[in-house]
Amino acid sequence: MVSTREVSLLILANQMMRNFWRNLSFSRKNRWILVSLSDAENINKVIIRFVKEKEGRRPGPALVMAATIRIPALARRIFYFFQDENSRSKWDILSHGHIVQQTGSISNGCVPGNHVFVLEVKSAEDPNRAVKTLFQESFSTSACSHVTFTPIEASSTSMILNGGDSNNVLVVLSGFSILSDGLTGDEVSLMTIVFQILDSAASPMCFPAHSMCSMHKLITETAKPISAWVVDPYNMD
Question: 113 with 140: CB under 8 angstroms?
Answer without folding.
Answer: yes
